[in-house]
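Deviation from plan, reported transparently: NDP complex.
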Amino acid sequence: MPKFEYAPAPESRSIVSLRESYGLFINGEFGPGVDGRAFKTISPATEEVLAEVTEAGPADVDRAVTAARKAYEHTWSAMPGRERAKYLFRIARIIQERARELAVLESLDNGKPIRESRDVDIPLVAAHFFYHAGWADKLEYAGYGPAPRPLGVAGQVIPWNFPLLMLAWKIAPALACGNTVVLKPAETTPLTALAFAEICQQADLPPGVVNIVTGAGETGRALVEHPGIDKVAFTGSTEVGKQIARACAPTRKKVTLELGGKAANVVFEDAPVDQAVEGIVNGIFFNQGHVCCAGSRLLVQESVYSDVLASLRRRLATLRLGDPLDKNTDVGAINSAAQLAKIRELSEVGEAEGAERWSPPCELPVKGFWFPPTIFTGVSQAHRIAREEIFGPVLSVLTFRTPAEAVEKANNTPYGLSAGVWTEKGSLILWMASRLRAGVVWANTFNKFDPASPFGGYKESGYGREGGRHGLEAYLDV
Ligand code: NDP
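Because the crystal trials were delayed, the predicted structure below was used instead.
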């Protein structure tokens, strides 16, 4: 089927006013780092330098933790929940007011399509603050005792795949429960966290309640290992998650880890094929596959394998890859050169191990970091592309004959973050859901998020839950 020709429809960048350089946000103010180090953040779609950002060293992290401690003891933990709620509501409303600017900034710095940052990321960011504002004065009804206490200062480290959304998942519940925070965004995507710091100023949030320290892995390490924090919340790779768990084990710090995944998206023979194909595409090509809960292993019942694969190939040929700011774009840029190298390497391993690689005809831009939507068929469970998180737009397809075999294969992974089931039979959905070892099981849909719904993993996907009533536990002394 030929692709429609679309005229370019780029979203204007003029709504974003980038500063040449950004300081650290400590105690309510932007300021320089102690040792004067900085790094550049670029647009992964064009490699254009967007801004210079301060690299926080251990002395800066220490200043931020001290500010957060002071704000915790003198202001925030003593404030009634109904007053904290007002600040969270105010932040949520400012996010809505500045939604278009935040969406453009996120797409510029991260490379994700504007359609996603505008329609998914930013609305969910606002929703997380609204939702947790609602909890701030009702914590005694959350099921954690009559007067649940906050933990203190939270050190939070987030990844680059959903920069502002991961910030919201971390900061909204922490603040609602009465904690103060020091957050480190990822090195490649610091700009929306810095815009959020401005929003805190705009909302008149008391100084020190939120502190943002930019930097790379070493800044993250200095933060999680700082003796002055009471709680560590991390989202990122399983490898770094394990290091953090080891570093925090001999301390009194409470830790939650949200790590990698290798989710199975299971399509039964009675599933409506077109709907399932949309779900498969959304499962693995949303956000270029940079999604911890991505449906990166497609398990198709053998009897419908050819139909599903033919439809999937047809659908992939209609995906538009290119300028993240173009409103027609479905697949944007890969976030960094390092991530692109990892996707390329694992895809080459897939071919070398004997799987068959296919991508639709697709012209990649010359500048920037790009990878075409890719499907591997003939994948066996032993292949590395069926076992390791690729974190890119690459789908491994396997088959099964019976529901029992589907469960066996779906659970054959060190991870356990999410899974999808496609069938018309409600009983089969329930049968599968009770057997899949995954924190979230989607039925006849995929990658659906809601602040009221807890999210988190089993096994090497980490521990602790974010969102919903369950997510509050991570920030309360229970
Ligand atoms: P990391 O786990 O390295 O990054 C996550 C965050 O942790 C970033 O802010 C990073 O800083 C920071 N960090 C790095 N090292 C340390 C440390 N020793 N102590 C504390 N914080 C640290 O992920 P990568 O960006 O390197 O991605 C590698 C792979 O991880 C991906 O290919 C993907 O497979 C997986 N991943 C999974 C994610 C998920 O949501 N499950 C999210 C991101 C990645 P900085 O970025 O500045 O180096």
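The radius of gyration is 22 Å. We consider this an acceptable substitute for the interim report.
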